[in-house]
Structure formats: C-alpha cells, structure tokens
Design goal:
single chain, Jelly Rolls, 8 strands, about 15% helix
C-alpha cells in the first residue's frame, strides 16, 4: 500500500535564496519505505543581461579590488547561472542526510535496507518527520517546485 503524506507545490523568488522551507509530516506506523520526489524549474537563467548583472554583483562582493576588472572581463566564464535547491530528511530520531544534487528532478528513497546516496538507511519509524528544501540560489524571477512524500509497504512499488 502507498500512502501520500505530503503533496505540495510552491513558488520561490530570489528573495528566498539562502533560506529553507520545511515540510513536517507524521508517520503513524512503521513502514517499509519512505519516498521523496522533488522537482523544480526553470533550472537556468536564460536572460543574458540579467545574468551579467548578477555575476558582476557577485564579483564586486567577493573579489578584492585589484582583481575586479580582470574578473568582470571574464564574466561569461561563470555562465550558466542556475537555480539550486537541495533536499534533506530528518526522522524523529535524528538527521537522515542531505541529497545535494544539481538535478532539477530528484527521487530519493529510505528504507531499512537501502537509501539514496547522501541519505542513511534505517527503519522508517513512527513520529514527526521533516523534509527540508534548502534554497541555495534562486536566480530566475520565479522558480516553481513540487514535493511529494509517501510511505510504501512491501509489494507496492
């Protein structure tokens, strides 16, 4: 049997960069497997003028004065600019890991016998769980996302 625990959609903007969105959900009984499907997009900032402006702002913020002009002359070497949102999972008994992927579509699984790289395998225990979306960089005006979390019992894949 498959039980959906979270089915969410959202929109984020550059103002949300370097922040987190947490989805808490209750697992009522032990389960065989927890699944997390996450997508976001667009992945890339297509507007070259906006990209150039953002890159130049970053250069001014992070480069020492003596390297500014040289770095600005090479602004295109920093392309393409892309949105980056990653996923982490916390169980009632502690952190189960983080999936720091650049893929705009991600499928993660946790069970006693397996786990997606970056996540720790272990029992799917009852209690309050949390999936956190970390908005490392949002460079497009709007970035849409979907998140689905579900439980599975043996034989329901």
């Amino acid at each position: 049997m498959k039980t959906v625990l979270v089915d969410a959609q959202g929109k984020v903007t550059p103002a949300g960069s370097k922040s987190h969105i947490a989805y808490r959900f209750f697992v009522p009984n032990a389960a065989d497997r927890l699944g997390v499907h996450f997508t976001y997009g667009p992945k890339y900032l297509e507007d070259q003028e906006k990209a150039k402006l953002l890159i130049e702002q970053g250069i001014e913020a992070y480069f020492e004065a003596e390297y500014l002009e040289q770095a600005k002359a090479r602004w295109q070497s920093y392309l393409p600019l892309q949105n980056l949102i990653t996923v982490s999972v916390d169980a009632p008994d502690g952190h189960r890991g983080a999936a720091h992927r650049h893929d705009r579509e991600q499928l993660h699984v946790l069970s006693r016998h397996e786990a997606t790289p970056g996540l720790a395998q272990g029992e799917i225990i009852p209690g309050m769980w949390e999936v956190t979306l970390s908005l490392h960089a949002i460079v497009t005006d709007v970035c849409d996302y979907t998140l689905k979390v579900w439980l599975e019992e043996e034989g329901t894949r």
